[in-house]
Here is the input.
Amino acid sequence: MLIYKYLSKYILDKISLTEWVDIALELIGTGTENENLYILAGLDSKSDIDGIRKYLDFILDEMKISSPSEEDAAAYLLYWYCSDLVNRRMEPEEFLRTVYDELFNYIAGTYTDKDYTPAQEFILFYWQLDDLENELVHLSPTAGREDEKKKLFKRCAELALMYVNENENTEQIFLRNGKEKK
Here is the structure.
C-alpha cells in the first residue's frame, strides 16, 4: 500500500511532516477514500503543522495502521523497492541509487559489518556500480564495463526476487492486532 511506503519514509526521516499534504493528494489520486485524507490535502503545509499531525493521526487511526519501528520501516521500504525492481517498475540502476539514498544512513548506523541484511548487499552492489561507472575497477581486456554492469544487475535482480518472496507478508507490520506499536 502506498501509504505504508510514505509512513516508512516518514519514520526514517526521509520525508517531513509538511510533505503529507502533497502525499494526501497523491493518495486521493490513487483512489484512497477517507474524509480526513481530504481535510489533510486541503491544509496549508507551511503554517498548519499541528493540523497536519492531527489529521495524519486520524487517518492512521481510521485505517487501523500502526507506526512501525525504524527497523520494520526500513524492511518495508526495501520490500517496496525490491517489488518495483522485480515487477519492472524500476530499472536496476535507479533501484540501487534509491536503496542507497533511502536506506544507507539507517543501515550504517544500525548494523555492524558482522550483521548481514539484504539491504547491505544492495549497498555493496551500489558501490560496485559506482566503481564500474567511474572506472575505479580495472577489468581484464576481455571484460567490458557494460557486461560487468549486466552481471551486477542480474545478481541484484536475483536477490530482490528472493527478498520479495521471503517477505510477502511484510505489510502485517502496519496492521493493528489489538496492540498498538509505538
Summary: The CA atoms of residues 14 and 57 lie 18 Å apart. The chain has two domains: 13-62, 70-171. The helical segments are 2-11, 20-29, 35-41, 49-62, 70-86, 92-110, 118-133, 145-166. The first helix runs from residue 2 to 11.
